[in-house]
Amino acid sequence: MVDHVLHNKDTIIDYLAILNNYPVFFVAVHCPLTELERREQARGDRQIGLAKNN
């Protein structure tokens, strides 16, 4: 299992090439920005603003 944010098509292509001998499933997780910002604040170990900029 790989837990990673795939920011662009090139990253997806790279993963598919590396994992070409294995079954691959992509799962999208969506969260409202307000909730991401709330969690970012609550964690205390994240730079504030990353949720909005990613």
UniProtKB/TrEMBL annotation:
It comes from Paenibacillus lentus. This is Uncharacterized protein. The chain crosses the membrane at residues 12-33. It comes from the Bacteria. Keywords: Membrane, Transmembrane, Transmembrane helix. The lineage of its organism: Bacteria, Bacillati, Bacillota, Bacilli, Bacillales.
